[in-house]
Amino acid sequence: MLLSIVIPCYNEEQNVPLFYQECTRVLEGIMPETELIFINDGSQDQTLKKLQKISDESHYQIKVIDFSRNFGKEAALLAGLESSQGDYVAIIDADLQQRPEYILKMLDILKNNPNIDEVAAYQEVRHEGKILTFFKDCFYRLINKMTEVEFVQSASDFRLLKRKVVDAIVSLPEKCRFSKGIFSWVGFQTYYMPYQVEERAFGTSKWSFWKLFIYAVDGIVAFSTVPLVISSVLGILFFLISIVFLATIVIKTLIWGDPVAGFPTLASLILLTAGIQLLCIGVLGQYLSKNYLESKNRPVYLIKQIYQSKGKHHEAH
Ligand code: UDP
Ligand code: MG
Fold first, then answer.
1. Atom of ligand 1 nearest to the CA of 12
2. Which atom of ligand 1 is least distant from the CA of 206?
3. Rounded mean pLDDT for each run of 10 residues along the chain, 317 residues in total
4. Which residues of 258-292 are buried (b: 16+ CB within 10 A; e: fewer)?
């Protein structure tokens, strides 16, 4: 049995040595059958140097994939999954918010339950502000209504996958990748395991509210076309309303000789319809832009170099 552990790293110079130390300590028993795949996602700090040092000095199987620039965590995950060789593949962050101990737990679950293909960790208790929690709740309610795949709230990328799930995920050719959706879309039997999120060992999270918002929109666009349907329905609705409105004005003028209603009504109607039109064009634009990006068919990431440890177990695979 070979276990691959995929670790995306972006500006994690302080966390990477600590992560390696913790990971090898915790997984000591299975380290000879484990490969660590670090992806340096265009870090601007000393992350690459630290990773090279680890891979040079380690006698375990270590692979460091160095991207040509920052392509984002989704790209890093894909690169890791694509180059993994394990029968089981774990995905874990480099910042020790997700303790490596859980990987053993996940492995136990997968080994003892042949019908389960994937274990996904979810946060039982969230340590977030009320406003953020509110927006996340709204997002999950919305996206679950709009899509046929199920998005499980609080489920993270911290997972252990069987080889067949990994193969399914990397076989999807799309370039704009939203892994939360892809994990559900490929199906397979998933076991949700509660876990406790730790504080970051060093550094700060790369997510801001704005980035999360864009990520949420990307997710909806990637997995649902319902917003396009809503745009069309709004168009039809406004067309019907305008006919009724027009008819009322004509009838009122013809029968009662009423003067045409005032400027404020007109101004607000123009603003309302223009606003809705812009909104719908914006929705259309989102899909068009994704289509444009996909049609360019650019690779999801570019690798500058791959470093491998001279680990004594390497030759075995
Ligand atoms: N990460 C990455 N590329 C990026 C941003 C983040 O590879 O562009 C990595 C990061 O180094 C970490 C993981 O993704 O290992 C999760 O990032 P972060 O801790 O910022 O996210 P959070 O835990 O707050 O969700
Ligand atoms: Mg983190």
1. 11
2. 20
3. 94 93 89 91 94 90 94 94 95 93 93 93 82 86 87 87 96 88 90 87 81 87 88 84 82 78 75 83 89 91 90 49
4. eeeeeeeeeeeeeeeeeeeeeebeebeebeeebee
Region of 257 (left: φ > 0; alpha: ψ -120 to 50; beta: rest) is: left
- Give the residue among 204, 263, 275, 289 at the shortest CA–CA distance from 10: 204
Query: DSSP characters for 32-92?
Result: GGEEEEEEE-S-SSSHHHHHHHHHHH-SSEEEEEEESS---HHHHHHHHHHH---SEEEE-
Ligand showing the shortest atom-to-Cα distance for residue 11:
1
Instruction: For residue 261, give the DSSP letter.
Output: P
Nearest-atom index, ligand 1, CA of 9? 11
The model's pTM: 0.82
Fold of 3-143+152-204+300-314: Spore Coat Polysaccharide Biosynthesis Protein SpsA; Chain A (3.90.550)
Q: Which residues line ligand 1 (CB under 6 A)?
A: 8-10, 12, 41, 70, 72-73, 76, 93-95, 97, 205-207
- Which of 13, 14, 95 to mutate for ligand 1's pocket (most ligand atoms within 8 Å of CB)? 95
Reduced to 3 states (helix: H, G, I; strand: E, B; else coil), residue 269 is helix
